[in-house]
Design brief:
single chain; 423 residues; alpha+beta; four-stranded antiparallel beta sheet; 17 helices; 10 strands; 18% strand
């Protein structure tokens, strides 16, 4: 095997075609191995090249449509981008089973984002905190001057908070500037404001400022959703009670809660990705919010109402936007937003929360009844048959055999394909 030298001077300055040639040269791969990058699909290569550094191609992810969703009294089709089998189907089934009770009711706390400014080497941190708070009007002026367009749209500086933290290096004075970013996710805006404000904080306090950046724990930008699943729609009391036991498990055990919340994020991240938003920001904020009590637990709450029906609710940070970043320049993200029909970042966030709740319901119901593998493996088996070399109708035929046998493996798929072809 050829030794790879990762030092390629000026790689970022090369056209995409030349970058591919360099990759082939430095890895020993045949040029034909890299031909797969020639088709950039529905993301033009010149756009991809502007989105990230050193681009050589694109990697399409399947987009499915979640049907049956009623959100705040309106039927909605929701695009979801995911490579995982059964994610879209799970949302469709969960939404269908609560249509009779009106679907999902959602709300949003607002569009506030937080940027943090770290102040150290301050001998009088409590006095420094007061000095910063005294400058509220000046802080507002500095922040708003950084983005006049946002002010025209009704956003801008909202408030300032100052915290004192103990650390291994001594006290830290942490200033939070809270900004209404309206229909933008707002990372660039709040980061710019924090960087402009930092020298003033150092001057007012006599300390030294270091980090100046947003927080992805967007706990002042919470999306909420709730829904009721009637007993007759979910399979009766035994199913309801089994689902409640699944929730109680996630509520008390972080090992279970992690997988429970991963299922929620299957749905949330799929919509975030489909609309060109930042999956990592949403995921990190959600998991941090799940641990806000000091113990990692479920992002959802499940209860039984007075009529015995199953009631679920979710509250999760949702820093998503309609303007800026990939959302604005990715043609597929724009089309997905048109399908969704959303007109504001808040309505997008609420829809995403509803999908997360639906995903959680579907996973718990599967776990409480036939087990998670039955539905998942039905779709996964098709991928396995394709990996084994199946084509066309062979995929469905052999996948059904694998699922019925309970053995979904590539070697078994290869054997069944051989049998089918020899008939």
């Amino acid at each position: 095997m050829m030794s790879v030298n990762s030092r390629i001077s000026g790689f970022h300055k090369l056209p995409v075609e030349e970058r591919l040639k360099k990759v082939a040269e430095h890895t020993g791969l045949a040029s034909s191995s890299l031909d797969t990058f020639a088709d950039s699909g529905n993301l033009p290569m010149d756009v991809a090249d502007r989105m990230i550094e050193n681009a050589i191609g694109t990697m399409p992810v399947p987009i499915g449509i979640a049907t049956n969703m009623i959100i705040d009294g309106e039927d909605v089709l929701i695009p979801m981008a995911s490579e995982e089998s059964s994610v879209v189907a799970a949302v469709c089934n969960a939404a269908r089973q609560c249509r009779g009770s009106g679907g999902f009711t959602t709300s949003m706390t607002g569009s506030l984002m937080i940027a943090q400014i770290q102040l150290v080497e301050c001998s009088d941190p409590f006095a420094a905190r007061i000095k910063i708070l005294e400058q509220r009007e000046k802080i507002k002026e500095i922040c708003n001057d950084a983005d006049p367009v946002l002010i025209k749209l009704g956003g801008g500086f909202h408030d300032v908070e100052v915290r004192i933290l103990d650390s291994k290096s001594g006290p830290m004075v942490i200033t939070h500037i809270i900004v209404d970013t309206r229909d933008a996710m707002g990372a660039n805006t709040v980061n710019t404001m924090a960087e402009k404000l930092a020298p003033f904080i150092a001057e007012w306090t006599g300390g030294r400022t270091y980090l100046r950046i947003l927080s992805n724990l967007a706990d002042q930008r919470l999306a909420r959703a709730r829904a009721t699943w009637r007993l007759e729609d979910i399979g009766g009391e035994s199913v309801r009670d089994a689902m409640m036991q699944a929730y109680y498990f996630a509520d008390v055990d972080p090992y279970r809660a992690t997988t429970h919340n991963k299922g929620i994020m299957n749905g949330i991240s799929a919509v975030v990705l489909a609309t060109g938003n930042d999956t990592r920001a949403v995921e990190s904020g959600a998991h941090a919010y799940a641990a806000r009590s000091g113990r990692y637990t479920s992002l959802t709450n499940w209860e039984v109402d007075r009529d015995g029906n199953l009631v679920g609710s979710i509250e999760v940070p949702m820093p998503v936007g309609l303007v800026g970043g990939a959302t604005k320049i990715h043609p597929v993200a724009q089309t997905n937003l048109e399908i969704l029909g959303t007109k504001s970042a808040a309505s997008l966030a609420r829809a995403i929360a509803a999908v997360g709740l639906a995903q959680n319901y579907a996973a718990m119901r599967a776990l409480a009844t036939e087990g998670i593998q039955k539905g998942h493996m039905g779709l996964h088996a098709k991928n396995i048959v394709a990996m084994a070399g199946g084509v066309g109708d062979e995929i469905d035929i052999v996948a059904e055999i694998l699922v019925k046998s309970g053995t979904v493996r590539v070697d078994v798929a290869e054997q069944e394909l051989a049998k089918l072809r020899n008939k």
